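Collaborator request, handled under Task 6.
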Amino acid sequence: MMVASVDSGYDDVHEPYYIRGEPYFSYPAPIIYSDSLRYNGTTHTPSEANYTSVTVPASGASYWLTFSGQFGSFPDFNSVEYKGVINGTEYRFPCYFQPYIPDDPLGGVSESEVVCRTATQEPAGVYQFEVTVANQVSGTGLDELFLPSVPEIVDVTGCVHKVDDGTGGCHTEGGERITITGLEDFGDSTV
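Structure tokens returned to the collaborator:
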């Protein structure tokens, strides 16, 4: 039986240690900083709560997000994911990232920052991030991404003819009251 003891701190060389002649590398797990999540390059003001809650316009669309942490000086990013429990079911989605490119407004991933693009199939809810680097998973970040529900129109009424879930035969001069019935909240929408 052989036991190997290795200092898992960062170094400049990342020398491997060997078990039975096979090289292994040991790196510390990545860390996601609290209160660092930003949406589409918006400026960020630290919160008193020590975490950030970012709300994007709606679920079902793709958004560029940025957050900071300690990710190491190696190019071994395996994945960036965001996850949430919605109605008792856990969902996990990839946050698509690109390699770091200096002076590129989209940035990419570096040893201290991740810029990634969300998927588009996620249900509305609250999500938090995890980063996997060199096969080590960070703890779940405290910052929250809130994806609100997308309003859905289920019926339109008000004109002379009923057409499926809509209405037809409206006068082109206007003056008719049209009623739109939907799911979720239409908020301040103008129709």
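The cover message to the collaborator said: "The first strand starts at residue 17 and ends at 19. Residues 152-183 form one domain. Please let us know whether this matches your experimental observations."
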